[in-house]
Amino acid sequence: MAILLRPASWGLFSWRGYCSRGTLGRLSAGFVEALKAVVGSPHVSTAAVVREQHGHDESMHRCQPPDAVVWPQNVEQVSRLAALCYGQGVPIIPFGTGTGLEGGVCAVQGGVCINLTRMDRILELNPEDFSVVVEPGVTRKALNTHLRDRGLWFPVDPGADASLCGMAATGASGTNSVRYGTMRDNVLNLEVVLPSGQRLHTAGPGRRFRKSAAGYNLTGLFVGSEGTLGLITAATLRLHPVPEATVAATCAFPTVQAAVDSTVHILQAAVPVARIEFLDEVMMDACNRHSKLNCCVAPTLFLEFHGSEQALAEQVQRTEEIIRHNGGSHFSWAKEAEERSRLWAARHNAWYASLALRPGCKGYSTDVCVPISRLPEILVQTKEDLEAWRLTGTIVGHVGDGNFHCILLVDPEDPEELLRVQAFAEQLGRRALALHGTCTGEHGIGLGKRQLLPEEVGAVGMETMRQIKATLDPQGLMNPGKPEEGTVLRLQEEGHFRGPRSLSQLLCP
């Protein structure tokens, strides 16, 4: 049974009852029948197992299932579903592939989960304009398979085979963002169903221009909105030409400082590197074991270069000079597609490699981003913090953007360890803020970082966000509670976090 909560911290929205009489937390039979009338009976489920599948993502947040799950097949059905739910005061939770890491799909107030994965058509391809229009069920791998013979690709790569509209909703990025940008740089237009059921084209119907000075940037407003302002039902995306040649490499360093210094120097030298990823020595040991590599167990950079053969030769030479100057060694270059794929598969499997370090434990992934110049400082401090908090964790990051993750291994049955993990994550987020960075470079706020959002954007920023939310969603029914000015402590007290209930007894080493 879903727990029904008032959004206490927003203080803007009154919850409207939608339960059948005497059955708190469940939709009435008549309302469920109304959902079926929109999408058809086979596309509505109130089964416990289905609801549970849709009540969590890949994070540590406890499953909070919706009261029903529906699978629309077209935008007209999405519009009717939104209007139906909003008219009855029923919370709406958009759902893609469920690969998020901050509890963004948890239905903390119950309601209807709208699973958009069956809307999976590539609607329009304009190769001359380097653009494509996709429905929300299209994943990045499916799109690139479709583009394979066109000499085009979509480079934003968060690792998981996430849905492209879900990536827009969370403002995703990944390994290629140092050269090609994040979702914010590669979304040209969005079709959004607003809570009322109205359809909005954020840049105007059918438009796919690269730049505009016409009014507010509505597209940018919805990129990263995490399902709190509307349901994204189509995205017009910017495509890129497939590079003529590609070279990948790994190189080891004596210290974390040396590896990150090299990253900064490579960027300062204007080397157009496509990917530059950092893995600490713990992560490299895990990748060697999991992916059957024989790389040096040391702080390591994974790099990739795109361009012409001649340009690549110059880029590689300049990069080698910089790396050797910083003490780098154990170069391993990969030119063939198969070897490059094996190398990057190991990087993308870092999550599973980390989990294998402590079988039976769960993974908790953090995510912060700082200005490039502050990367060496925060990474060195983070390594020291892991030791000070007595935690098992790996560090991996898109350091070309100043963005990195800690993957912490935690025993979910050990409340004291959970407490230390939580305290470490909060400390890391605040350290990033102190260095003029952000508490999340790509995971989003979700439930996990709600306590840090006000600290990042300030009181005026929060009030502005509240006003935008109140304008587009006056009843507060779109993915309620995310993001919300609140605290992890309050979430624990309400039972939404799979961790200890108090921060009052932190056990320091």
Class inferred from helices and paired strands: alpha+beta
**Beta content:** 15-25%
Report the span from N to C terminus. 40 Å
Helix share of residues?
Answer: 25-40%
Per DSSP, the total helix count is 17
Chain oligomer state: single chain
The best one-word shape is: globular
Radius of gyration: 23 Å
Return the average pLDDT rounded to an integer. Answer: 87
How many strands appear in the DSSP assignment?
19
Largest sheet: 8 strands, antiparallel
Parts with pLDDT < 50 across at least 5 consecutive residues: 1-24, 485-509
Tell me what you see in this structure.
- This protein has 509 residues and is α+β, with helices and mostly antiparallel strands.
- It is 35% helix and 18% strand.
- The chain is built from 17 helices and 19 strands.
- The chain has helices spanning 29-39, 48-53, 75-87, 140-147, 164-170, 177-180, 183-186, 218-222, 256-268, 281-291, 309-325, 337-348, 350-355, 375-388, 415-434, 453-472, 488-494, and strands at residues 44-45, 68-70, 92-95, 112-115, 122-126, 131-134, 152-153, 187-193, 199-201, 231-238, 240-241, 245-252, 273-279, 300-307, 329-334, 362-365, 368-369, 392-398, 403-410.
- The strands form 4 sheets. Strands 12, 13, 14, 15, 16, 17, 18 and 19 form an 8-stranded antiparallel sheet that branches. Strands 5-6-10-8-9 form a 5-stranded antiparallel sheet. A 4-stranded mixed sheet has the order 1-2-4-3.
- Helix 1 packs antiparallel against helix 3 (75-87) and helix 14 (375-388) runs antiparallel to helix 15 (415-434).
- Residues 1-24 and 485-509 have low confidence and may be disordered.
